[in-house]
Q: What sequence folds into this?
């Protein structure tokens, strides 16, 4: 077991090292519980408990953020069956403050029952939970078997008939689709929803075992003689059908018949015999008449398995093919689990019977557990506590957030390809010529629609510069553009005050602080000052109204983005909290709008020469229209600028050489307060900002929808180099996160932070679009770049260096914009970013 390094310092509880998948770690937790139950040895108990609790996810239902992007129903099911065993065997209960075993199993059941789908093939669970994963259109038997197994065991443990009803429904569906053949009791692999009668005919041990134990549980649970007889027949049928997996001269050696004879068992399949062994042994306790038939099979298989355990460095590693009676040169977690489980199964008659809620059970339940995930069809990203506990990024664990998923798909599917998302086809491309065609002169053929629109529509309304198209967009841009001319952007007085407040808030004694949180406060203060003439003053002393405004702003942004991922239908579903937050935002801006209108009538003088709102009022637009535009600019001026600025500090905190070069440039200028022109001519400072935006673009993905049938320059033909026809209404999405890491453009080290790459003759056009491109390029680009440059300059006039105290890789979280999920702590994630809570600033 030490080989698995489950208890190595710094490892994430409940995970196996690569290349093993998450589901098999859940299966292994079940094996550790079995080991304790059969032997009484408690040495692995704390490791099993830690793993089972750490992987529960924020809603305590085994949908942890670092797994849900690629999670299947069968994956979740194996963790659910492990905690069901913990409840039945009275495994050590977690602390009261933690979720309990029975409640966790109920949570898995509840989330899976909500995914039962009658539209395709008349019922059943899909293999994959989310539609972008390969296998979403496949209904495999193991997903049904896991669900059946958990439901049946919950029925037995709790006595609740509703669980038994679900198990019956699953059984009937398996029989109806002929995945379970009642003539032979063979269980076949699965069916594709496009043709529900076309069965994939492979048979696997774990399907037979999961169904057999579930049937035995329902026999044990049944109240009437008729029910018991029905389930007795079914247990016998499944036992007869499972004999296909026993081969050898006497037909009593367990074999994975679909892959062992042809040497094609993959990493997953190498562990399957562990589960048939486990569940056949369990069947003998709930269906005792089966013992005389099952025990000889387990005994012969155990002897054969042990005879292969002569390999590896220690001479005790087990092989896959038990029939050979010798080590076959293969070893791994699956082989070790299978051998251990079949040996343990042979002492089943000496082990305690599984308990129930009323006969010895001590695990607390919760019939409504998992409710927060019921019906959810989009993944969540890690909370702070998850990332802190893990101490490593999602990427380091071999798991992938949305932007990583894009990178993988482009690598495997080509630069332009179609995907099916939420039942609708989407064209993905990272071809520069395609992006140029969409954003360039023909942009009117490519309006904003789909998730790009839906993520901000509830917040901004249909008339803002970010949500309008065609003439409405041209009108909004014409009204806003004069506010971002050089004279306004180059006025650094407004920035200076708020950046001074930021620097004053940074501890000078080396104390850990969250740089991203301070930057978000600073950019909200400066943006509201620039836009409204009145700052929220979050870095000094914010009023209760300002504090509520910021809470409403962050809540509305987050919830709008979440709903957008689920498609346009949710726009019409009432959401009281979101509506209330948006109204709060608009009321706050309306207050200052009315104040500005009154001041305009009283006097033309202002404390500052320029206020955005004053300029808008010269056009006499409707009040609501003005509010739409102000909130639009606030999103850009606050969120994207803060994220971009955070990325600069993130990378500098990990590159002392870059900091030294930057400080030398700042010293050479020999000024305290640089002008706009001086900042623009600081070559290395601007290269640092360019490089940070390349690796961490605040808007990491973008999309448009074809207004009419049209053609894009590349993506067609066998090699993808020919034009491609795009039908009317087709959404097209691209990712600057992927474009900016093109090694053909930026070099073989494109994934690394190296500002010096911009010193060479690096000619980029549409390959580098942190502020988008074409006529809709961000109006506030220079506003953001100026504020970033000024903040970095002033920071390094006060502080000598910065240090990240966590060396974990970059993590990103996607929202309307991207950000560091856990602040600037020194590590971040959501697609993959870093944060700065563990961040040192040393004064000069």
A:
């Amino acid at each position: 077991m030490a080989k698995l390094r489950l208890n190595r310092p710094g490892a994430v509880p409940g995970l196996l090292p690569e290349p093993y998948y998450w589901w098999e770690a859940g299966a292994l937790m079940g094996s550790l519980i079995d080991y304790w139950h059969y032997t009484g040895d408690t040495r692995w108990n704390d490791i099993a408990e830690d793993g089972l609790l750490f992987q529960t996810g924020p809603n305590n239902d085994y949908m942890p953020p670092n797994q849900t992007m690629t999670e299947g129903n069968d994956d979740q099911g194996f963790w659910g069956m492990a905690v069901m065993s913990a409840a039945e065997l009275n495994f050590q209960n977690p602390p009261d403050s933690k979720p309990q075993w029975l409640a966790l199993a109920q949570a898995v059941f509840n989330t899976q029952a909500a995914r039962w789908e009658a539209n395709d093939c008349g019922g059943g669970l899909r293999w994959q939970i989310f539609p972008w994963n390969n296998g979403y259109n496949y209904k495999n038997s193991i997903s049904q078997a896991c669900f059946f197994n958990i439901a049946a065991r919950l029925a037995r443990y709790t006595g609740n008939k509703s669980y038994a009803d679900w198990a019956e429904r699953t059984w009937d569906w398996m029989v109806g689709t002929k995945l379970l053949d009642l003539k032979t009791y063979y269980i076949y692999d699965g069916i594709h929803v496009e043709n529900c009668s076309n069965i994939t005919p492979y048979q696997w041990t774990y399907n037979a075992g999961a169904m057999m134990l579930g049937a035995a549980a329902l026999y044990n649970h049944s109240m009437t003689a008729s029910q018991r007889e029905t389930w007795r027949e079914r247990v016998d049928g499944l036992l007869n059908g499972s004999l296909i997996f026993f081969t050898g001269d006497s037909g009593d050696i367990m074999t994975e018949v679909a892959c062992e004879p042809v040497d094609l068992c993959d990493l997953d399949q190498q562990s399957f015999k562990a589960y048939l062994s486990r569940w056949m042994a369990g069947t003998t306790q709930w269906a005792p008449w089966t013992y005389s038939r099952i025990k000889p099979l387990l005994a012969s298989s155990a002897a054969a398995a042990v005879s292969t355990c002569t390999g590896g460095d220690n001479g005790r590693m087990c092989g896959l093919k038990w029939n050979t009676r010798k080590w076959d040169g293969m070893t791994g977690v699956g082989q070790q689990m299978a051998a251990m489980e079949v040996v343990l199964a042979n002492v089943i008659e000496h082990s305690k019977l599984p308990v129930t809620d009323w006969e010895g059970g001590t695990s607390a339940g919760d019939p409504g557990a998992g409710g927060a995930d019921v019906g959810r069809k989009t993944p969540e990203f890690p909370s702070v506590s998850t990332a802190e506990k893990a101490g490593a990024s999602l990427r380091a664990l071999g798991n992938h957030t949305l932007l990583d998923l894009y990178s993988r798909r482009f690598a495997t599917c080509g630069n332009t390809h179609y995907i099916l998302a939420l039942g609708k086809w989407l064209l993905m491309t990272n071809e520069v010529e395609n992006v140029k065609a969409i954003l360039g002169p023909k942009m009117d053929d490519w309006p904003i629609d789909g998730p790009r629109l839906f993520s901000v529509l509830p917040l901004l309304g249909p008339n803002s510069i970010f949500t309008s198209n065609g003439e409405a967009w041209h009108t909004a841009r014409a009204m806003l553009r004069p506010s971002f001319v050089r004279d306004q952007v180059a006025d650094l007085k407004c920035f200076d005050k708020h950046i001074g407040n930021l620097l004053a808030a940074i501890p000078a004694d080396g104390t850990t602080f969250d740089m991203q949180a301070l930057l978000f406060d600073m950019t909200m203060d400066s943006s509201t000052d620039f836009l409204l003439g009145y700052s929220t003053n979050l870095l000094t002393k914010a009023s209760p109204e300002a504090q509520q405004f910021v809470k409403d702003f962050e809540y509305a942004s987050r919830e709008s983005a979440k709903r957008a991922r689920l498609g346009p239908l949710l726009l019409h579903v009432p959401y009281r909290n979101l509506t209330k937050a948006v109204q709060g935002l608009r009321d706050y801006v309306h207050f200052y709008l009315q104040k500005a209108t009154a001041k305009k009538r009283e006097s033309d003088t202002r404390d500052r020469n320029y206020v955005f709102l004053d300029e808008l009022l010269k056009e006499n637009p409707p009040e609501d229209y003005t509010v739409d535009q102000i909130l639009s600019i606030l999103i850009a001026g606050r969120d994207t600028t803060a994220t971009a600025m955070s990325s600069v500090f993130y990378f500098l905190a990990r590159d002392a050489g870059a900091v030294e070069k930057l400080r030398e440039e700042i010293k050479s200028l020999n000024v305290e307060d640089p002008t706009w022109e001086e900042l623009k001519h600081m070559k290395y400072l601007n290269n640092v900002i360019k490089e940070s935006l390349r690796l961490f673009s605040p808007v990491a993905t973008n999309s448009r929808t074809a207004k009419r049938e049209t053609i894009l320059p590349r993506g067609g033909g066998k090699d993808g180099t020919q034009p491609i026809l795009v039908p009317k209404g087709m959404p097209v999405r691209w990712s600057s996160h992927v474009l900016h890491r093109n090694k053909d453009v930026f070099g073989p080290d494109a994934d690394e932070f190296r500002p010096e790459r911009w010193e060479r003759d690096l000619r980029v056009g549409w390959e580098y679009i942190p502020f988008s491109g074409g006529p809709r390029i961000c109006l506030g680009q220079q506003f953001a770049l100026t504020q970033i440059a000024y903040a970095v300059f002033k920071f390094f006039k006060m502080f000598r260096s910065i240090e990240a105290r966590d060396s974990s890789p970059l993590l990103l979280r996607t929202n309307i914009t991207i950000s560091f999920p856990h602040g600037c702590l020194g590590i971040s994630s959501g697609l993959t970013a870093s944060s700065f809570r563990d961040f040192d600033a040393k004064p000069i």
Summary: The CA atoms of residues 140 and 190 lie 4 Å apart. The radius of gyration is 31 Å.
